[in-house]
Structure formats: structure tokens, C-alpha cells
Sequence to fold (236 residues):
Amino acid sequence: MGTERNVLVTGGNRGIGRAIAEEFLAAGHRVAVTARSGEGPAGALTVRADVTDAASLDAAFTAVEAEYGPVEVVVANAGITRDTLLLRMSEDDFTEVIDTNLTGAFRTVKRASKGMLKARFGRIILISSVVGLYGSAGQVNYSASKAALVGMARSLTRELGGRGITANVVAPGFIETDMTAALPDEQQAQYKASIPAGRFASPSEVARVVTWIAGDDAGYISGAVIPVDGGLGMGH
Fold:
């Protein structure tokens, strides 16, 4: 299993974030999740936080540190969508997505890095998306926020890489979640036809990549973008 770590996953109450928290728990780590509402999986410490509010994030980290000690692995997963075509996209549609998905990741990483620098160890994992580099009509805001995480991870690697801290991006494709289940059958079939693997991923398939990149075996990998997309975004 490797060394037991203190792990914090933002947006860990549902979807991919919840699966990531469950996978870390199954591997024997101490896990906390932030959630605006709802609870994380059994065995995880759930702390209330909104990634658009630095003070609430700071309080959440302080609560986790009091319970477990410094956060050693941080997974910036919290994200929102406001999908609409460019000409219909309001400035609020754009800035809200950037504030949650990109600036939220910055706030999370900045707060986590304090303890990591002291410990001279850390794993920063940013959850992006295949559309960050592949693009998607109706998602100018979302794809911009997710592409930007690549530059963030690479700059973090150059800044913190000498201190035992890695920063990587995991880029999921289509995943079986409540969101994809709600799509009409015809649309699901269309999406699957564009994926070489011919299927959507289970959330646990993304989660296992995250736990591996956080583990002892991945200490020399940093600034990487790891796609978990069944081949959808190849070459991007």
C-alpha cells in the first residue's frame, strides 16, 4: 500500500471526487473531503468549504490539520459547469466557472502547500478534463478553466519540485455519473462511438489513477497530464 498519508479531496461528496475519497480510504489513508453540502463517504472526515471562499477553505484545512495533521496529498476536484454557446454565454457564466474550477484550485493548492513545504513532501493532483485540451462546443468557460490547470501544475512543478512535492493533472473523459446517465440514449451512443474504448469509464477507474499518482511509486512524475479517457483525446 505504501505510506499512509493525510489526504484532502475537494468536492468529495459525489461523483468522481467521492470515488477518489473511497479509493484512498480503501488503501488505508486518512481522508478528508470538502463539501458545500452533503457528506463524504463513510470513514472520511467531511468539512464544509466553498472553494470560491479562501476563508472557508482555510477553516476547512485547519479542521483537517487538527484531526489528522498536515495535508500531504491534495486533490483539487471541485468543479462546476455553465454550458452554453459563446454568443449566449454571459460574463457571469464565464467568471463563475473560472472562479470555482481554476481560482478554486489555486486557493486550495496555496493553502495546502504551506504544510507540504515544511514537510518537504507533497502530492498535488488537479482534476482536469479531456475537453481541457480537446475542446468542446458550448464549453468555452469550462475547457478554458481545465486547460489552465496544466499550466498551473507545470509552474508548480518548477517552483516546488526541489522540495519533494509533485504536481500532476488527471484528465478524465466521459465517466459514468448521474450527469452522463441523464443524457438521452441516442446522445450516449453518439459519445461512445467517438471513444476508441467504446464505453464510458467507471469513477473508480479515474480514482485508481489518482491514488497511484499520489503514491510512493510516482515520486519522480511531475508536471504530467494523465488522460483517463479511453483514447478520446489522443495527441492533445
Observations:
- Residues 6-228 form a domain with the Rossmann fold fold (CATH 3.40.50.720).
- The beta strands are 6-10, 30-35, 45-48, 73-76, 122-127, 165-172, 225-228.
